[in-house]
Design a protein that fits this description.
two-stranded antiparallel sheet; mainly alpha
Length: about 110
């Protein structure tokens, strides 16, 4: 078992004893961190947010998620790979996966290891 997997496992196990308010606070914090990261590091999301007039700090609670435009599979397929990747990701160190394309067009994803 990898170290990352063990850390995640123990984090989830610890959450079982947390109060709902603590879990909600943690979820909100992590959501805001993810939005900030996407906005500042992924060209696709930076552009999408700007077009919608939203900045990461505008999302303060889970309810604010409705202000963020939905990203569709078609948008992802139509966007060049370099615009979908975070600036700090080396595509050569990523594992490539593809869906079966049951909807007509397969979707290729990358995962850094």
């Amino acid at each position: 078992m990898s170290a990352r997997l063990l850390i995640d496992f123990y984090g989830l196990k610890r959450n079982l004893t947390q109060s709902p308010s603590v879990i909600k606070r943690t979820q909100t914090k992590k959501l805001r961190e993810a939005l900030r990261y996407a906005y500042w590091n992924v060209p696709f999301y930076h552009t999408k947010f700007k077009k919608s007039g939203i900045k990461p700090n505008d999302v303060k609670t889970i309810r604010d998620l409705s202000r963020i435009p939905v990203t569709t599979k078609r948008e992802i397929q139509a966007t060049p790979l370099n615009e979908m990747l975070a600036k700090n990701i080396d595509v050569n160190k990523c594992k490539k996966n593809s869906t079966s394309g049951s909807t007509g067009v397969p979707l290729t994803t990358l995962a850094d290891e």
